[in-house]
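Friendly challenge for the regulars: who can give me the structure tokens for this chain first? No prize, just bragging rights.
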Amino acid sequence: MKPSGFRIGDLWGGIAAVAIILPQAMAFGVALMATAGFSASAGAITGLIGTAAICLTSGFIGGTRGLISAPTGPMLVIQVAALTALHKSGLQGDALITGLMAVLLVMGIMQFLIGLSGGGRLIKFLPYPVVAGFITGSGVLMILSQVNPLSAEVSSMDWRPWYWLPIATAAVTYFSMSLVPKILPRIPGTVGGLVIGTLFFQVVAIFGPAAVPPEWVIGSLPSPTSLGVDLQLSTFVALPWKIIIPSALALAVLASIDTLLTAVVADVETKVRHVARKELIGQGVGQILAGFTGGMAGAGTTGATLVAIRSGGRRWAAVVAGVTIILLIFIGGPVGTILPISVLAGVILHVAVGMLDRDILAWLSRPLAIMDGVIAILVTTVTIAYDLMIAVGVGVLIAVIIFIRNEIRAQVVHRRSNASQFHSVNARTEEEREVLDYNAERIVMYELRGNLFFATADRLFEELSEDLGENVYLVLNMRRVSQIDLTAIKILQQIAERVHASGGHLSFCELHSGLGLGRKMHKALKNVSPNASRWKIRTFISADHAFAWAEDSLLREFGIKTMDHKQVIPLEQTDLCVGMGQDEIKVLKSVLKRQQIKKDEVVFCRGDFGDELYIVERGQIEIRLQTTEHHYKRLASYGPGTVFGEVAFFDPGQRVAEAVAVHKTVLLSLNHETMVDLYKDNSDVVLSLFSALGRRLSGNLRWSAREIKRLSQW
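First reply, four minutes later:
Bragging rights claimed.
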């Protein structure tokens, strides 16, 4: 993401975002500090300081354009749990503030390290049901947290009959936040609720018996430096780190999730991709700054981010928001004297209700999603009944279990093919083809896929069991295997023992570098276990080469001599001349041209005009299709006695691949024009030639149809 200069849209975007996050930051700060007995004004300033710190650092580092950070509901719940635990451990007053600061410092360092190490990518893999359950549980806890503030008795006897006023104010604020955007779309719901709720409270309070009780309003905001923080090393050492470290870890993970989700939303609006690494580093530095200055933790917040972007904010909007909040902290202190706590309670309740994921109930009613619903309910229950930090651990554990479950359910064997369904590109004589087709089950290839690890390796053994006790040439294609662990390697050793003990042969192909096993599976097995199979386990570069070796080996078992490029096959012994009489063969010989081709010499190139039929008398020709500048796909291999070039012979035109001599080769060729002339005087020879070529082409077409079907199955 390229840096950009300041623009007027950043100013309006930042100010618009402040209107959204200001009530939320104050409300969450009050809710946090109230749990430890601090005043509402101290809580409000804590929320504002944290918001300013994170907005400034995140904005300066600029990992996401337009992203605005502030305290969020889930972050509040974890901080409340942490502060409550610290309070129960014996910390009070300034020591409690120091404990909260330590939580934020450790959290910031962890989040910084998550960003620096690229851990943001891993966080994105948390299953949505876990996140949904966690967020829903946090919403319920936020709702419960407002019961006491709204129902607490007031110290003034005159105001006790007016106990309903805070509840009514919270209700007015709540419904105003829902209705104002529908009636006046340009006004954010948070701003509308704040203004209307405050006006309602102050107007009703005019008819009260006396001045408004001080515990019902925020009060004048204290100086940012008024929150005492003990930075002595001895105090830090004495802190309950068994509480601080787990709390910080939970906050770091949750803040990263919240921020990255918001960053994705920002990307959609700005059409610029965020840099997760920079964003998490900026957030981590912001948490550290918030801890040092007496603030609270926060994360990216979707509502304010969308408002900032749609108001024109981009690169510097977050910085503007941070500076604006700092100015309000220093000059807006008296505003707290007219701002009711119940209004902020209404804001919290509205945010909390919005966090309840209603889709969970729908998941429970659908067979395909019922397990996701159960997981979400479990995480929600743990969050409410036990501890939010335990829920984070449960969520991570469930994520691991879900991953393992999905991997176990995933197919390990993509496809099983025998020699009649897949064969090498080596051209075979009719006799060879008949033998291979009749003994097709003697050559078997399993295309493996996914991850071979302790949970799937045994199932692989079971799926291969039908072929392990047979005298077969077994090929394991590793092309689509993502990773393999030690357990799977040991299972492969057992498979090798079973195959070779039955008189068969095991080989591997397409062993890519991502597996970390090297180029030879036999060596990899020996490295893991020096006492591995004593039989030779071959590794081939491709399935084609593996099948070529297996076919040649099988043919030798039946006494059929396979292709030898040094061998000379006379014309009359080729499949092309089957059914021809001696006179016809003699006529055909008279029109054929003999060519001497050197090793690595190109017979024809892709795009060349061609009209010739070629018969390999000696040597070997490969038909290749260039895939990249330095790589090619081997389409066919022709040895002595085989024929190629039929298509161009029947229908002259551009060649679609190139032909290269692998060894010194002798070719016999017949072009289309000569064939036409031959037909005028010796039609029987041409018809016999066409009959032989027709059989070859029909066989090739049938094979092509099967191969297309096989390829379409992936």
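The longest strand covers residues 473-484. Residues 241-270 form the longest helix (30 residues). Your move, everyone else.
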